[in-house]
Amino acid sequence: MRWLANGVVLALVACGPTGNETGGGASGADSQAGTPEGLPAQAPPQFSFGSEASAARVAMWDIDVRPDGEGLPAGSGTVAEGRQVYEVHCVECHGATGTEGPNDRLVGGPTWEDSVPSPQTVGNYWQYATTLYDFIHRAMPQLTPGLLTSDQAYAVVAYVLYLNEIVAEDAVMNAETLPAVAMPARAGFVVDDREGGSGPIR
Amino acid sequence: MSVEISRRAWITTASGVVAAGLIKTQSDAVQLAAQQAPSAPPVPRVPGSFPSNLGARAPGEQPRRIFGEALSSSSRTPHQDLMGIITPADLHFERHHGGVPSIVSEDHELLVHGMVDRPMTFRMADLMRYPQVSRIQFLECSGNGGGAYNRDRMPTDITVQALDGLLSTSEWTGVPVSTILREVGVRRGASWILAEGGDSALMSRSVPLDKVMDDALLAYGQNGERMRPGQGYPLRLFLPGWEGNTSVKWLRRIEITDRPTYTRDETSKYTDPLADGTARQFSFTMDAKSVITFPSFPFALTDRGWWEIKGLAWSGRGRITRVEVSTDGGQRWVDAHLQGPVLPKCTVRFRHLFEWNGRETIVMSRATDETGYVQPTVQQLWDARGPGTAYHQNHQRAWKIASTGEVTFGLGDLV
Question: How far is B384 from chain A (nearest CA, A)?
């Protein structure tokens, strides 16, 4: 995203890792006497109240997956395997074909060319296929999250993408193929342009 | 108590009894009141209850959040029952993405890692040892008020709680995230964080690092005590002025990154489809907004005469500088009184005294914040965004007062 590449990065360089003084929460606290924001002048460079985290400890919790595939685990799954996972773990909330609900509809929906995409589905509104893996792996099935193995998660991602006619029936999803999936909705998103002030309402 | 009662007795017995010289003491007055004004409240003649280790509300004062069916994921603050700006912690709104987890504070850990020099874990005792700050700030769900946006389904019999109850204000206490990032040493090139909760959904959001360094808090206190489980106990991220879901509750992990992660809740949810076929993303800030909490449905004005219009105004971009009120459906606007304190990224209570003449009319409010932004009309939002957005509906609300005094909801000329 364009704005990510400039404004935010520059702001960070200005702040740096010791940016409390510049960060300062100017908007939040300076009107409230007796609650100084940031650190007192005599604060040491580090307090070291926490504990160093080992690489193994980090790896145990670092589960997120990014659009470029960073964070995707080993393993793989096919559309056929995904159908089996879906029918056991997903069908009750998302319906036999991913359109019936009662929870979020996963399949189909109008394209962005028609108008506002509603209902919003994986096919017409999800930007990145990697997000599907990340979310299913972390949060689904809703009542037993964390139940699926990596292979099962890859497989059900493959199946939902297949139902949306985004991948072929013989598709195999893994750490290499999943980031390469082109999602129909990817181009539609724009950065928030609201900015306060007396200009036009956005 | 007896002084209060005796005043009432003096009033009810008034001139005749006093003039006749029948009252010499307060007790005479009370006895006379009991004889001559049987409707007066009784005087307690036995000592009351003892102190206790935990206070309770008066039996007749039992404000409640409202929520939907059994699997509802949100509950709403009863603004019609509240005063001032602070929301009692047990009435703070809730919006959960995987229910409220049961977390023991002593067992909780925050992992901070990614583009840092020293990946670290912090237990609550560690975090609570860092220099502490407290700030009074609002939290609002970006879906708050969505019930007043659909042109074809505009309700009239809806309460301010049901419509705008996904807003609450607390004094939040914690340690600035910037203090903790100083401990771990953020590496050059970092520009975002990923914040992850410890609920069953491991709810996660990406946040620009400049916001984190500016005023983000690792909050563990709410209104003078440890925060409630429904608000993220034992630890939440708190991002002043930003849509509520970014203030990730039950916070267990912060990863420093150089790009957003594009989680489910910043792609397929909490984005805003616009009429031009695009969707707005990372729409973090809650724009200026105001709501009248009295009069509102289902109150009724019981007689003509003086009534005080009361409400709340807030902006995620700073202080509220002005709230205007109209008592004639938006033809004329007058400045309401802003009752201090007026704090940045915080609700302010506004008041306006109004003499109702008994005729049907419409009362409205509109807020202006320190950037000069004026709370828009619903038509302005429809024109700018089209019908498909489900978040950030901060347009002006209105209440119609019927000639009977009954109050119903509407939107200005659309009432």
Answer: 5
Note whether B407 and B300 are within 8 A (CB). Answer: yes
- Residue A180: inside a domain, yes or no? yes
Of B406, B394, B323, the residue nearest B148 (C-alpha): B394
Contact at 8 Å (CB) between A179 and A131?
Answer: no
Q: For each of chain A's 202 residues, which pLDDT tens digit applies? A: 333 333 333 333 333 333 333 333 333 333 333 333 668 888 898 999 999 999 999 999 999 999 999 999 999 999 999 999 999 999 999 999 999 999 999 999 888 776 677 889 999 999 999 999 999 999 999 999 999 999 999 999 999 999 999 999 999 999 999 999 999 988 889 999 999 999 999 9
Beta strand pairing call for B109-114 and B251-257: parallel
Q: List B167's β-bridge partners, or say none.
A: B140
Q: Do B262 and A130 touch (CB under 8 A)?
A: yes
Tell me the three state secondary structure of residue B355.
strand
Q: Residue ranges of the domains in chain B? A: 2-36, 73-272, 289-414
Please report residues of B whose CB lies closer than 8 A to that of A188.
Answer: 277-279
pTM of the model: 0.88
B chain contacts of residue A24, beta-carbon cutoff 8 Å: 214
Answer whether B85's CB lies under 8 Å from B346's CB: yes
The domain made up of B289-414 is a member of CATH 3.30.1130.10: no
**Structural domain of A148:** 76-188
Q: Is A93 on the interface with B (CB under 8 A)?
A: no
Q: What is the CATH number of the domain that holds A85?
A: 1.10.760.10
Domain membership flag for residue A71: no
- Across the A/B interface, how many CB contacts are shorter than 8 Å? 271
Report the alpha-carbon distance of residue A102 to residue A99 in Å, rounded: 9
Query: Is residue A63 in a domain?
Result: no
Lookup result for tokens 């950037």 = B371
User: B133-140 and B225-226: which strand pairing?
Assistant: unpaired
Q: Does residue A89 form part of some domain?
A: yes
CA distance B73 to B91: 15
Total domains in chain A come to 1
Contacts of B120 in chain A (CB under 8 A): 50-53
Put simply, the chain B residues between 125 and 164 with a CB less than 8 A from any chain A CB are 126-127, 129-131, 133-137
ipTM given for this complex: 0.86
**What CATH fold (topology level) applies to the domain B73-272?**
Sulfite Oxidase; Chain A, domain 2 (3.90.420)
How near does any CA of chain B get to the CA of A33, in Å? 10
